[in-house]
């Protein structure tokens, strides 16, 4: 019994200390999404393409109904894909070149109703597969029940034969 408790203590210590020691490689265990959102970049806008159709990779185990609600799309925009033993989805969205608080790039905007204790990182990782663009002030400006715009990274390419999966 003491050996079993020592093992659990070691696992708990590792669970809480590992992110502090190795923050760049820490992964969210539930979703596989990075908890550090500082190393993501928007696609540079093309002079020729302002809007295109893009696929957002949704891998958080959400139901089809939740995905359509969170991404503001119809069920026809979801394409199921299997990965190992889980069901993921490609969500087809219109991707547009725009300026989001000084960052010009390709984005898809959707609305999200804030819940109690939401943080930007939790919403981005657990709902939007780490694709939300942080513009600053998210936690300070809003309260539970507020509906906010979520800017999701997407991309367009010059070659019409190719598509982007974000």
UniProtKB/TrEMBL annotation:
A single cellular component GO annotation: plasma membrane
**Keyword field:** Cell membrane, Disulfide bond, Membrane, Signal, Transmembrane, Transmembrane helix
Q: Mostly located where?
A: membrane
Tagged with keyword Metal-binding: no
Q: Do the record's keywords include rRNA processing?
A: no
UniProt-annotated location(s):
Cell membrane
- Its transmembrane ranges are none
Q: Which InterPro entries match?
A: CERK1/LYK3-like
| Molecular-function GO terms, alphabetical | transmembrane receptor protein kinase activity
The organism sits in which domain of life?
A: Eukaryota
Q: Which residue positions does the secretion signal occupy?
A: 1-23
Q: Name one GO biological process term.
A: innate immune response
Which membrane topology describes this protein? Single-pass membrane protein
Task: Tell me the PANTHER family matching this sequence.
Answer: CHITIN ELICITOR RECEPTOR KINASE 1-RELATED, PROTEIN KINASE DOMAIN-CONTAINING PROTEIN
**What is this protein identified as?**
Uncharacterized protein
Q: Which organism is it from?
A: Anisodus tanguticus
